[in-house]
Amino acid sequence: MTYTVALAQVNPACGDLEYNVKMHVAQTEQACEAGADLIVFPELSLSGYLLKDQTLDVMRRADCPEFAGLRELSRHIAICAGFVEEGEDGIPYNSAFFMDAGEVCHVHRKMYLPTHGMFEELKFLGRGKELSVFDTRFGRTGIVICRDLFHPLEVSTMAALGVELLLAPSAMPARGFGGEELAIEQTVSLALGSASTFLGMFVVYVNRVGFDDGLGFYGGSALSDPVGGITVSAPRFEAVQLLGTIDTSHIARHRYQLPIRREEDLAIVRHALETRRNS
Question: Where would I find the CN hydrolase domain in this sequence (predicted)?
Answer without folding.
Answer: 3-248
